[in-house]
Amino acid sequence: MNITVSEALTHFTQQYVTQWGEQTGLPPASVELYGVPSPCTVRTGESWVYWEPQAFPFKEKSLDKVATALDIELQPMIHPFYTTQLAGDMKAQFHEYTLSLIQVWNGDDFIRLQENLIGHLVTQKRLKLSPTLFIATLDSDLEMISLCNLTGEIILEKFGSKERQTLSPDLVSFIHELSPVIEPIG
After folding, report:
1. What are residue 92's phi and psi, to 5 degrees?
2. Average pLDDT, stretch 120-144?
3. How is 130-142 classified by DSSP, letter by letter?
């Protein structure tokens, strides 16, 4: 079974939306995205927004600006990870780690994401660390889950240090092993 990053991400997102609906009777909700415009918004609550994923609407379907800014080549699988869809960040479980899968919410968010990736890569270059591209956050502000730009492996890294642990051989395998975590709001 050979599936693409886009297919794996779409499948996980469908699972996430389905499980959210089964547990709450509503689409996924986010407090953090309340009041931030997006084509994903289907309705709003008191201080949260309900959302559904949408096809990525922009012509630019790559992170080439990030690659150009740093004069490096990015792992090809990072492009579809961030340009397959617009969606809210999704909580998930990967083995013992509860994480929040980073997604693009709107056009401004896509620009901010690229700026943050550039900043992350510049910091790594300054600290003489091998380049990584973050894909998920953890409860700890010091750790994140990233795609190693050299090997394509998914790693747990401590920000600003050489401390890294391989979690998965590639992005498709990583996404395939995720389980949605549903935390109803309100």
Report:
1. -150, 165
2. 94
3. PPEEEEEE-SSTT
